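Section: protein folds

Sequence with per-residue tokens
===
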Amino acid sequence: MKKETKQEINREYVLNSVDNALALLECFEEGNHELSVPEIAEKLKLSKSSTYRIAYTLWVRGYLVKNEDTHRYRLGYKILTLSAAMRKSSNLIQEVRPYLKKLMEKTGETAHLAVLYDNMSTFIEKIESPKTIQMSSAVGVRLPAYCSATGKVLLSGISEEELERYLKETELKRFTPATITNAEKLKEEIKTIKRQGYSIDNEETEEGLMCISAPIKDHKGDVIAAISISGPATRLKKRKKEHIKEVTTIAHQISSSITL
């Protein structure tokens, strides 16, 4: 399915009030747990009075919660109800969930389902490992595509032109000594992933964390999502070859069975 680019969007049909309200909610994506009206206004480049009215409306609707002691806002539980509804209605999540559970049981590690959204690898489902030491994550978490296992798999599914555009739009920041920050080196990595059918985040996003990912493809062979396992690098390295086989095998099973 063709994704409409921002350049193709007709701004005449965009309601500024709704756009600003959604932009306000997105301020909390950046790891900001609580924000004041002045802080939000500065981020959105809006007046404090307009920002207050938007925040107040979202508070009335349950999308924001206000700390009466600090007069700062945080996301409300209404967000969770929408997230739960989306997950229940998503055919992809429903079809993949049993396989994720199987992957977690086979490997003992936390299993994720991710899609590429706004140039980020976004977790849309998770089956948590029962082990005490595991990757800390949640549905909705977004990771830079260029240095995460799922992200690199998803990038391997886009065209060369789209990859070039992604590299122009994305700053390759260094998170650990292993992070790939050179565009040419990343392109070679993507070629390798296409050829071998899996990707590894070997402590590129976070030191001590390792992830192994493989693509989910539709009936046309296009990459539509990625599955992965994540856990302590010391533990995953001991069974690396075995885990690669388990992840790629289940990814192939999903690709063969999905009805999207």
In short: The domain at 90-257 is CATH 3.30.450.40 (Beta-Lactamase). The chain has ten helices and eight strands. The chain has a mean pLDDT of 87.
